[in-house]
Amino acid sequence: MSLPIVRIQRHCLHDGPGIRTTVFLQGCALACPWCSNPEAIPLTPPAFFDEQKCIAHIQADAPLCAGCPFPESGAAPRTCPLGAVHPASSPVEQDAVLQHLMKDAALYRDSNGGVTFSGGEPFLHARALRPLLEALREEGIHIAFETSGFFPPEQAPILLPFINHLLLDLKWMTTPVFNPEISLPPDVFEQNLAAFQVAAAEMTYRLVLIREFLDVPGKRESLLARLQELPPAPIELLPLHHLAESKYRQLGIPFTPLSAPTRSDQKAFCSQIKTLTDAPVRLLRL
Amino acid sequence: MNTLKHSIKQVGQRCLPPSVHHQFGDYLGYIRQAPRRHSSRFQFYRDFLSYRHQRRFSLPAEDPAQPQVAAAEQFARLLHWFKPSPLETEYFYPLDDHLIFIQPPHCTSIASLSPDYTEVFHLNLEDLRPRDPQTPFARSMDITIRSVLHLIEKVAAHLERQGTARSRQVADYLRRLPSSPPASFDEALQKILFYNGLLWQNRYLHNGLGRLDLVLAPYYDADIRANRITHAEAKEMLKAFIRQLGAHTRFKSIKLIGDTGQVIMLGGRTPESDSFEHDLTFLFLEVFQELNIPDPKCILRVGAHTSDNLWLAAASCMATGCGSPLLVNEDLVIPLMQEHGYSPEDSLQAAIGACWEPYVIGKSFDQTNISPALFPLLVFTDLLRQLPNEPIPDFPSFLRRYEEQLKKSLPPSRQTVDFTPAPLLSLLFPDCHTRQKDISEEGTRYNFHGRQVVGLPNTINALLNIKQLVYDTPRFTLPELADILETNFEGREDVRQLAQRSPLQFGSTHPDVLMLTQQIMQMLTRVTEHHTINGHKARMGFASSRYVDSAESIPASLDGRKASAPVAAHIIPLSPDIDIAEALDFGGSLTYNTTWLNGNVVDFIIPPSFLADLPALAKILKHGIHRGAYEVQLNVLSHEQLLDARAHPEKYPNLIIRVWGFSAYFCDLPVAYQDEFIRRTAPSCLCP
Ligand code: SF4
Questions:
Q1: First-to-last CA distance in chain B?
Q2: Is the pLDDT of residue B2 over 80?
Q3: Structural contact between residues A52 and A148, judged by C-beta atoms closer than 8 angstroms
Q4: How many Å apart are CA B252 and CA B26, to the nearest integer?
Q5: Please, what is the Cα angle at B519 between B514 and B522, to 5 degrees?
Q6: How many angstroms separate the CA atoms of B186 and B66, rounded?
Q7: What is the DSSP letter of B469?
Q8: Nearest residue to B111 via CA among B434, B425, B436
Q9: How far apart are alpha carbons B471 and B515 in whole angstroms?
């Protein structure tokens, strides 16, 4: 069975404990406008078109480019022999994924790290992932999942027994924006949260900090109140970054210019959260 | 710059005897001056003439009957001119960069050796002085020792007259130096500096310092135990020592400023310990970290037994961007050295010379970068030019043709090299006394010389492209590609980009890339199997230095490189498809044999996230080495920083970059090298 792999990134330091390899999978039930992996949202992989890789401006009528519409009409081509067009993800066989993940097995052990599945929403691929998770567990590899909690609730029990750590992204900056390709029950988050709570996995909450939303009157208070309702667990705050801006351009989708709070505001908000909980609260800088 | 270089040569030739014209460029140092320094030719001549005016040149004898004796006399003359000046630093350093030693003509200079300072500490010059010097070797020793003793006396008297407590103490150290081992850590540092300075004054190049943590440990321990010094005082002494070594970088550099080869080895196995890790090992790393200077540099021997503490200390030092330490995998290097012919005991005393080449401290006269270098890329160009009439049916046949052509292009399999006689070096190598032979005449037990292979990564990428574009998914014929190369990709930027953007690149662990890389390494092993230099099996250097200027005459190549553009060096994650993990894996998956004893280095820029998590960086480096990377070196910089430094050098006086086996200030590099680094660090680009 294959998995729709957006990319596999080794030596990750912010995707759970220790040094990890993170597997980004295609497809998500949400479509947050600040998403740093917009290519991973649709269920079928979109194509990137990187105009900077196009050589039309340095060589007109290049023989290899014959038939490409871009120089004439500016329309994004479907393919490019020079790699200016490439799909966001491609299917990779489980064995190949496992082999890749095992390259750093000794490094995971030495750093108390492991493998993290992210995306997209990794729980959308529960059935396809299960054999891989079984194999990883067999090898004693620590498994983390980064999830929004928005996925069909019947997927959770398939994977939860194998997961050591859950990184729950709290999509609380706005009311969730859904990917119309996937329909979910209205209380999906609550159902999944309940499943997470009875699972053996450790939990970390993550919250992206976006100035435009945090500055809405009453927003911080409501966030703090909601955080207080959650079972206690470490919290990681991630100030928004703009590293994905070029991806939006290359995918031809609009980029929503949002920003991170100032550094001092980030710290102040972090301190406010710390007063609510005994669990560790960390401000990450990616 | 080329015109300027030419002008210097012309002026230089008027100032020196014809026999030494060829060396002139080396001594002027002007071609290594910071870029933009000389905006006009007038300024250039003015500076040149003042350089010439202020310096004294010790010329070699014309056609001497006994070259070793002549070399000793030439050195003695230089020391005779040496005028001691008041002690202004902590230590006396016998190097006056106004005194220029000109090598004898038609001899190859000696570089990249380290005396074993543990042995040097116990040298007794009086005992070594031949009673009845009859042979040329004995006479050369006699002259050399006498001139050193004379210098010591001259300097010690001068320092006593200076009359400060420190100058009197140093004078005392110097008086004891010829016949007594050091009595303290401080005195040991002075003794090393004394001989090291003399080696530079005598114009031996790339003078290594050996395993200084190991060498100095007994003196440090004794002083600490006896409460003669504190840890903090020892650190200050080391700082003064390092600063002294780094004070003459320009004078000591070979081609580019910073290329001095002043290597301090740290850590590593000893007969008693699996990993020698002493207070001093850590202290040296702290000193490098705090001084943040590119010269001297340190190399840390690491392996399975290196402690996590030492890995962390190394990562912390590397993260400062000072270029030190370079990591060398001794679990890989030492067994290979033994296979090559070094004894098990001696191979434990391994150091890295020149850039990346292993040798034995105090026992090797291994000259690892003997000209001519091998240029497999040229072979490839030749082959495409002389394509046979009948097509080459498949890629294996193409490789066979390539191998035939490679064989034809090699230098003669038996090469003889005359090295400059080196009495001072011979004095410091006990083997030379046992054998009563100058080091240049195989006075030491190891004489494993070698050559560099320039542009191997480009060759492999070009071959991968041929495989892909001509055979696997045919888009071009070989004659078509030959024509495109012939015209330097004129009007075929599409093909150049296609070639350059292939995901199958040197550094990737794709099975096709690994297989071809191994095939080409085996091929080079086969065709050079019987190659000897001075009768000893030649070894090959995989990673190349001087990748900018040595590529000037290489035509366009099918890796997408235009004619004269720099070639690739080392294992660098260049393509966006190759990240650090991949580069380390690639480095670890190559199979080295004794031909490839000189190894290869994985070279990368530390991402900012690693800089914020040094324990993680330490573990990544550790596992990269455990998985078989031969050597690893790091840079800490960004593309934007380099662009800004190019435009505003005044803002970046301390920006250090690893160039090849050495680090330098970015702003000291010639523009062509600066451009090459800017190109390499660009995120994704239409490369030239
Ligand atoms: S084929 Fe690719 S490089 Fe050529 S014009 Fe189209 S997009 Fe540009």
A1: 20
A2: no
A3: no
A4: 10
A5: 125
A6: 39
A7: I
A8: B425
A9: 16
CA B124/CA B139 separation, integer angstroms: 17
Do β-strands A165-169 and A202-209 pair in parallel, antiparallel, or remain unpaired? parallel
CB atoms within 10 A of CB B235: 18
> From CA B105, how far away is CA A253, in angstroms rounded?
69
In order of A13, A166, B194, B470, the CA distances from A17 in angstroms are 8, 11, 51, 47
User: Cβ neighbours of residue B135 under 8 Å, at least 6 residues apart?
Assistant: B436
Q: B624-655, pLDDT tens digit by residue?
A: 999 999 999 888 888 888 999 999 988 888 88
Could you tell me which of B585, B665, B569, B668 has the C-alpha nearest to residue B623? B585
Residues 6 or more apart from B569 whose CB is under 8 A from it? Answer: B457, B543, B544, B545, B547, B603, B660
Q: Which residue of A has its CA nearest to B489?
A: A59
pTM exceeds 0.95, yes or no:
no
Whole-number Å distance between alpha carbons of B52 and B30? 12
CB contact at 8 A, B81 and B56: yes
Query: What is the second-level CATH architecture of the domain B67-361+419-441?
Result: Alpha-Beta Barrel (3.20)
What is the torsional sign of CA B667, B671, B676, B680?
Answer: positive
- Please tell me if the CB atom of residue A68 comes closer than 6 angstroms to any atom of ligand 1: yes
User: Residue B435: exposed, middle, or buried by beta-carbon count in 10 A (0-12, 13-18, 19+)?
Assistant: middle
Dihedral of CA atoms B52, B53, B56, B61 in degrees, nearest 10, equals 60
Q: A116-173: per-residue pLDDT in tens?
A: 999 999 999 999 999 999 999 999 999 999 999 999 999 999 999 999 999 999 999 9
Mean pLDDT estimate for chain B: 89
Mutate to test the interface with B, among A19, A23, A249 (most CBs of B within 10 A): A19
Q: Tell me the two tokens of residue B579.
A: 């990240």
Residues 42 through 81 of chain A touching chain B, CB cutoff 8 Å: 50, 52-53, 55, 58-59, 62-65, 81
- Check A106 against B612: CB less than 8 A apart: no
Q: Using alpha carbons, select from B512, B687, B499, B683 the residue that is nearest to residue B586.
A: B512
Please tell me the predicted confidence (pLDDT) of residue B10.
63
Please state, in angstroms and rounded to a whole number, the distance separating the CA atoms of residues B462 and B146: 58
The per-residue pLDDT for range B508-564, each reduced to its tens digit, is 999 999 999 999 999 999 999 999 999 998 988 776 677 888 888 899 999 999 999
CA dist., res. A144 & res. A120, Å (int): 14
Domains of chain A: 2-46+88-283 (3.20.20.70), 47-85 (no CATH)
CB-based contact, A8 to chain B, within 8 Å? no
Q: Give the Cβ contact number of residue B198 at 10 Å.
A: 26
**Amino acid symbol at B439:** I
Instruction: Spell out the domain ranges in chain B.
Output: 2-54, 67-361+419-441, 381-410+448-599
Contact A24, A5 (CB under 8 A): yes
Rounded Cα gap, residues A59 and A212, in angstroms? 43
Residues present in chain B in total: 688
* CA–CA distance, B534 with B524 (Å, rounded to integer): 20
- Name the pairing type of β-strands B326-329 and B631-635: antiparallel
Query: Are B108 and B447 contacting, i.e. CB atoms less than 8 angstroms apart?
Result: no
Q: Which of residues 569-588 of B touch A (CB under 8 A)?
A: 579-582, 585
Within 10 angstroms of residue B417's Cβ, the number of other Cβ atoms is 13
The model's pLDDT over A99-115, given as tens digits with 9 standing for 90+, comes to: 999 999 999 999 999 99
Instruction: Give, to the nearest 10 degrees, the angle between helix B279-291 and helix B212-225.
Output: 110
